[in-house]
Design brief:
By secondary structure, the chain is α/β, with parallel strands linked by helices. It has a single domain, classed as Undecaprenyl pyrophosphate synthetase, CATH 3.40.1180.10. The chain has 8 helices and 6 strands, in the order E-H-H-E-H-H-E-H-E-H-H-E-E-H. A 6-stranded parallel β-sheet has the order 3-4-2-1-5-6, with helices on both faces. Helix 5 links the parallel strand 3 and strand 4. The longest helix is centred in the N-terminal third of the chain and has 21 residues. The protein is globular. It binds farnesyl diphosphate (FPP).
């Protein structure tokens, strides 16, 4: 645990830089994604040890379909491999696996594995590990609006009414969003939910992000004052 006990309840990470990590080593991009996956496996354990309750990662966005077909297929296979081989480890940590995003376009077999992993881990209560796959913040807001309209709500609708139609309405907004690999943007991640999130950017590529880097980010967060539009306390 970090010294300061102000830890985020919900930590979100934009896993960026797998490609650059691989390029620097003259490896194919998919090797970078594989290294990124190994790092993610470590991170679930570390995040749990820090006492974080919700951990979400941006693994595949609604825009990532625009990548070359080889890379998209490779990533889908990697997700499938993870669900076949690693879910027991996650469950043993007391973590519940959840998915966040649109279900369309994902391979049937992967969808079955996703459903299985969610059911298999659903009673774990120490950590919610949320994999955002085929996720886009704008898509989520649109889907929520359409679902809300279909429910024939009383006008005017409130923020809470809309929130009930988000993909994971029970998950609290991210307190801290980390983005690796030097880009300073949100890229359509948790658009609505990030209204008052704290951001932490690092130049480290995702496969090199380790325990020391996590501790640095958490210590930085612990020193921030969150005012939610109010005044200094
Ligand atoms: C962004 O790096 C990374 C991705 C689009 C994929 C992230 C996926 C993993 C780490 C594997 C996760 C596996 C599971 C099961 C969730 P990039 O390719 O955009 O890197 P670059 O900007 O350096 O090219």
């Amino acid at each position: 645990m970090t010294d300061n006990n102000r830890i985020p309840k919900h930590l979100a990470i934009i896993l960026d830089g797998n490609g650059r990590w691989a390029k620097r080593r003259n490896l194919p991009r998919l090797m970078g994604h594989r290294a990124g996956l190994r790092k993610l496996e470590d991170m679930v354990r570390l995040v749990k040890r820090e006492g974080i309750r919700y951990f979400s990662v941006y693994a595949f966005s609604t825009e990532n379909w625009n990548r070359p077909i080889m890379e998209v297929t490779g990533l889908m296979r990697l997700f499938g491999y993870y669900l076949r081989r690693k879910v027991d480890e996650v469950k043993a940590e007391g973590a519940r696996i959840r998915f966040c995003g649109r279900k369309d376009r994902l391979p049937e077999e992967l969808l079955r594995q996703m459903q299985w992993a969610e059911d298999y881990t659903k009673d774990e209560k120490i950590l919610d590990f949320i994999l955002c796959i085929n996720y886009g913040g704008r898509a989520e807001i649109l889907d929520a609006v359409n679902s809300l309209i279909a429910s024939n709500p009383q006008s005017p609708v409130t923020e809470d009414d809309l929130r009930k139609h988000f993909y994971l309405p029970d998950v609290p907004d991210p307190d801290l969003i980390i983005r690796t690999s030097g880009e300073l943007r949100l890229s359509n991640f948790w658009l609505w939910e990030s209204a008052y999130s704290e951001y932490y950017f690092t130049d480290i590529h995702w496969p090199d992000f380790d325990e020391a880097e996590l501790k640095k980010a958490l210590a930085d967060y612990a020193g921030r004052e969150r005012r939610y539009g109010g005044l200094k306390s």
